[in-house]
Amino acid sequence: MKDNKTKIIIIAVALVVGVALTFYLAASVIPKALTILTKASGSAKVSIKNSFIIGEKILAKADGKDKCEVNVFVLDASGKGILGKQVQLTGLTNLTAKTNEQGKANFEMVSSVAGSYELRASVNGVALTKSLKVVFK
């Protein structure tokens, strides 16, 4: 009987320690690790090969109000975003934006003229290898 109580106490203590350790990891260690892993690159060297342009919304009404949304991600050689880089977007109009902590520059465009437009992004005067088409109908 005494042996069973000892086993129950050991199991209860192990359970409490396990729960406490889980809460500690979830509240402290994991967020710090994620912050380090997702932090913008300290390197200012842009990798054109790793950087890319992507359409969030590439089809809109040609009513001068509906927006196409395009994001350009400026990354270093290890794939981390670079903060504060000036990105130029051409094709519909000439737009510029600076990158955020993830290396993302966001562009919103409207048009009252229907058409298909090939957008090209460049960083420091160097064009990204791929372009993106947006359409206003």
Can you describe what's shown?
With 137 residues, this protein is of the alpha+beta class. It folds into 2 domains: 38 residues; 85 residues, Sandwich (Immunoglobulin-like). Strands 2, 4, 5, 7, 8 and 9 form a 6-stranded mixed beta sheet that branches. The chain has a 3-stranded antiparallel beta sheet with strand order 1-3-6, with no helix packed on it. β4 and β5 form a beta hairpin. The longest helix is centred in the first third of the chain and has 37 residues. The protein is elongated and about 85 Å long. It starts with a helix and ends with a strand. The model has no long low-confidence stretch (mean pLDDT 87).
- Average per-residue pLDDT, rounded, comes to 87
Helix content: 25-40%
**Rg estimate, integer Å:** 25 Å
How can the largest sheet be summarized? Answer: 6 strands, mixed
Based on secondary structure, the structural category is alpha+beta
Would you count the extended β strands for me? 9
CATH class membership of the largest domain: Mainly Beta
Give, in order, the helices and strands: HEEEEEEEEE
Which overall shape is indicated by the principal axes computed on the Cα atoms? elongated
| CATH-defined architecture of the largest domain | Sandwich
Return the domain count.
2
Strand content: 25-35%
CA-CA gap between termini: 81 Å
Low-pLDDT parts are none
